Amino acid sequence: MAKKVLVVDDEKTIVKGIRYSLEQDGMKVDCAYDGEEAVGYARANTYDIILLDVMLPKMDGFEVCQQIREFSSVPIVMLTAKGDDMDKILGLEYGADDYITKPFNILEVKARIKAIMRRTSKAEAELKVQTFGDLVVNEEYRRVYVGDREINLTSREFDVLEFLVNTPGKVYNRSELLHAIWGEGFPGDERTVDVHVRRLREKLETNPSEPRYVRTKWGSGYYFQA
Question: What is the CA radius of gyration of the chain?
Fold first, then answer.
């Protein structure tokens, strides 16, 4: 999926140059020319990164950054024409992730953008790895480990485990699990859930008859014990 960038600067020639260069790399680019417009774009859209000039009409870049931070953690790179280190430090204190001093080389801008996007993607992937004792569930790559041993789960077995681990302690009856994982139009019956839970236990548990992770609340359903 193409990365989406918001470029904010009141100098239209700079915006035009950045936009052209980023689009040549396959990115989607929106442009704003004052602070209020920038906040509006950031509220209405989801971006992978924002390039934000410090000196803007209506609202300066620091205030824009501060307002965006109230509702979004999108990476923000400040663009400043000043060499004053206080401006750079202030920008970072307001929640910016990096800064670039004008005049800049567009290759430097692109390199900074790509570096930040790599870090962001890595952090998101790491957030999708959940650890419970010796059980590790990697939702990004759909892989499961018990200790050093990788567990070979079918796609549906992984779906059941993933669904349960994301709401530990919450009990789901068979009907709820069937509809959530197999969908409303699934022609099978609720015993399908029992079969998949049994197989999960056989693969994950040292003693499947006394499970540590996928447990039963008698008369109610199944839940994950974190």
Answer: 24
